[in-house]
Amino acid sequence: MELRHLKYFLAVAEELNFTKAAEKLFISQPPLSRQIIELEEEIQARLFIRNNKKVELTEAGKYFKKEVKELFLNLESVTLKTKKIAENVSGEFRIAYISSIYSAAISELIQFLKAQFPYVNFKLFEISTSKQISALEQGKIDLGIVRSPIKSPKIKSQLWFQDGFSVVFNKHQISINSEKDILKLKDETFVFFNKDYAPHYHEVLLELCAFYGFTPKVVHESNNINSIVQLVKNGLGISIVPSTISKNNQDSALGFIELKEVNLLTDVSLISLKEDHSEITKTAIDFLLKKE
C-alpha cells in the first residue's frame, strides 16, 4: 500500500463519483478505478458499492475513510513539527535578558514557545547588554532583550517598550513622599550598577541625580538589579532603578517614587541577527510586542 492509494481512496470517498474524483486528482478514470481495486485487494475488504447510478461506501469503507482522514491529519501535524525543528538546527533556542526586565513576561514567553515548538529546548541566560551583543554576533544566543543603545552592523533591533526611572528606598529609614523630596537624598548612600558592567546605564543614573541638583555618594555596586533592591531593603542605601522593577517588588518595606519631571526614558529592545529569519525568533518577538 502506498500513500497515493490512500489519497485516491479519499478523493472517491468524498466525491462518491469516480469521474469527479479523477478530475480532482488530475488523472483519467480507468487508472483511478484500478488503484481502488488494488487497495481493496490488498486490505481484503470491499470499500465501495458500485452500480450504473451511484457509488456508495460500504460499512468497511466508512470506517476506512474516517481512519485515513485521521491519518492524514496526524501526518500534517508531524510535518509541521518537523519543519519547526529543522528551522532551529540544534534543536535549541537561547534567549538572553538583562536583570532589570520584568520577569513575568519572560516566563510567559517561555511557556508560550514551549507550547508552539514542543521539541525545541529553550534556554534562558541573564547577561548584560554589552555581553549579549557580543554573544549574539558569535552565535552563542538567538534572541536578546537589552537596554539601548545597540551598536552593531550585524544586529537588528525592535523597540519593545520605553521604561522610566524610580527612586527605591527603605521606608523604615527614609521619609520622602513625592518627587519634590528627591533633593533630600543628596547626603544618602547610593547603590548603583557597576560602571564597567553597565557603563551607559551608570551614566544615565548620574545624569538623573544631576537633574535633581546633586551628585550621588555611591558606596555599593552590583551587577544585578535584584541584588541592588535587596541591598536597599537591607538598609544599605537607596538606588534609582527602572520603573518596571516596582512590579516585581511589592515588599511593604520598599518605597518607589517615579521620576517624571526629568522626562528621561530608556529603550528596552529585542535584538537578533539581521540574517536570522527563523519562525521561532519571529514568534518570540511577536509575542513580546503584544505584551506591551
Automatic annotation (TrEMBL):
<dbReference type="Pfam" id="PF03466">
    <property type="entry name" value="LysR_substrate"/>
</dbReference>
<keyword id="KW-0238">DNA-binding</keyword>
<comment type="similarity">
    <text>Belongs to the LysR transcriptional regulatory family.</text>
</comment>
<dbReference type="InterPro" id="IPR036390">
    <property type="entry name" value="WH_DNA-bd_sf"/>
</dbReference>
<dbReference type="InterPro" id="IPR000847">
    <property type="entry name" value="LysR_HTH_N"/>
</dbReference>
<keyword id="KW-0805">Transcription regulation</keyword>
<dbReference type="InterPro" id="IPR005119">
    <property type="entry name" value="LysR_subst-bd"/>
</dbReference>
<dbReference type="Pfam" id="PF00126">
    <property type="entry name" value="HTH_1"/>
</dbReference>
<protein>
    <submittedName>
        <fullName>LysR family transcriptional regulator</fullName>
    </submittedName>
</protein>
<feature type="domain" description="HTH lysR-type">
    <location>
        <begin position="1"/>
        <end position="58"/>
    </location>
</feature>
<keyword id="KW-0804">Transcription</keyword>
<dbReference type="GO" id="GO:0003700">
    <property type="term" value="F:DNA-binding transcription factor activity"/>
</dbReference>
<dbReference type="GO" id="GO:0003677">
    <property type="term" value="F:DNA binding"/>
</dbReference>
<dbReference type="InterPro" id="IPR036388">
    <property type="entry name" value="WH-like_DNA-bd_sf"/>
</dbReference>
<dbReference type="GO" id="GO:0032993">
    <property type="term" value="C:protein-DNA complex"/>
</dbReference>
